[in-house]
Amino acid sequence: MIDLLVVGAGPAGLSAAIAAAEQGLKVKVLDEFPKVGGRLLGQLHQEPSGEWWNGIEMGEKLHQKARLEGVNIQCEVSVSDISRTDFGWSVYTSVGMIKAKNLLLATGASETAIPLPGWTLPGAISIGAAQVMGNVHRVKPGNSCVIIGANVLSIAIANELMLCGVKVKEIIIPETGPVAKDAGVPEKVMASLMRLTHLAPNAFLRQAGKFGKFVSPKVAAQFFPKNGIRVLGIPIRVKKAAIEIIGEGQATGVRTVAVTPDGKRIQGTEQVTEADFVCIAGGLAPMSELASIAGCSFKYVEELGGHIPLHSERMETAVPGLYVAGNITGVESAKVAMAQGKVAGLTVAFNTNGASKKTEMLVKCALDDVRKTRANALIEFQPGIVEARERIYVQFEQERIAVKQAITVS
Ligand SMILES: Cc1cc2nc3c(=O)[nH]c(=O)nc-3n(C[C@H](O)[C@H](O)[C@H](O)COP(=O)(O)OP(=O)(O)OC[C@H]3O[C@@H](n4cnc5c(N)ncnc54)[C@H](O)[C@@H]3O)c2cc1C
Asked: pLDDT for 130-160, tens place per residue?
């Protein structure tokens, strides 16, 4: 029987599979996409060192390594259900049921849409869809675009779209509301953009942080130039909000309005920016449905992107034989996902092969690597990730103790 079944062949799942296979486990990986690599396939950016982070190459390296270690990888297979059994897990997929002793969920994150009038028009797409079209399928989505949502991901992908030859006319914000919330409040957007100064993964983002270096977000939003700041030719306009995507049967532009620093409409300031397509960048949320089916406890953690399955630093859940790694545990960069995957794979080996000093040492080194990678992360999706993670690990241990006590009493 398979020792470890991994759902998701992104950086977390592949790294976990490699680490577990290196320790002698029989490992199988499933992914519903036709290619391995997960979100790595869309990533292309320049590091502060000047080197390029090429996600496709990294995905290929992980794929080759996994194959060398004897990992069985099957693409175009969707996992729809899982159930715990006496031997471990029954995993229900689009090609039938698969049995495994241990299960690792590395299903990544999904995008959050921001609904506004016209958002269902053809040509109104998510920012991730634009990244996949350009970087994965090599299809230019159009000649010009407007991006709604000024955040780390939209700025990084705007840069990638420019490399594809797309003219990004402007990055604006959504109008604040029950879904957009702080993403539509200029002073809050400024606060998150200012964090990019020291984290900037490339020249583009380094410049994006400059304007807010010496002042508070509130003041920065007040004095933010009406026409925005240009970063590598792209105007970022945090005081201009989208109120409608316009077009007859096809998106042809965005109707906008000027807003105050706290996000209120300024009357008489409506404008239209024309574009071939419109991207909505509403942020990312962990994709954790399968963990919910398995019976994991969940916590809502804003800093990690939403509801996450409660887990230990070693990537165990409270459900025996069930592990998680990567963006399902909180939205972070691909490098952190890879480091977490290694911890998960080694922990499964430690728990399956019997505790050994050698594996324990490997787990400790891998945990150190996660902390270092996180501390040096170039793309930080939310502030306060380190503290949020520490809280989760404490809550997990408390739950583990409570469950043990309940079992002892009964
Ligand atoms: C749109 C988007 C853009 C991003 N851009 C960047 C970026 O530029 N730089 C960066 O550092 N990070 C980026 N990220 C964050 C990114 O998610 C991480 O960098 C990293 O890829 C997370 O790794 P992972 O292995 O956890 O998940 P992923 O890389 O997302 O891999 C998860 C895999 O699980 C598979 N899967 C999910 N559910 C199932 C199922 N039920 N059955 C079978 N297979 C399943 C998916 O097909 C996917 O291949 C982006 C994320 C998104 C959503």
From this structure: 999 999 999 999 999 999 999 988 988 998 9
Which CATH superfamily hosts domain 2-110+285-409? FAD/NAD(P)-binding domain (3.50.50.60)
239 Cα distance to chain centroid: 26
Mutate to test the pocket of ligand 1, among 39, 73, 324 (most ligand atoms within 8 A of CB): 39
Does domain 113-282 fall into CATH 3.50.50.60?
yes
Residue 30: name the closest of 38, 22, 40, 41 by CA.
38
Q: Packing angle between helix 152-163 and helix 203-210, nearest 10 degrees?
A: 130
- 39 touches ligand 1 (CB under 6 Å): yes
Task: Look at the pTM and tell me if it is higher than 0.85.
Answer: yes
Chain segment 284-313, per-residue pLDDT in tens: 999 999 999 999 999 999 999 999 999 999
Tokens 């496709």 locate to 56
Q: How far is the CA of 335 from the centre of ligand 1 (A)?
A: 12
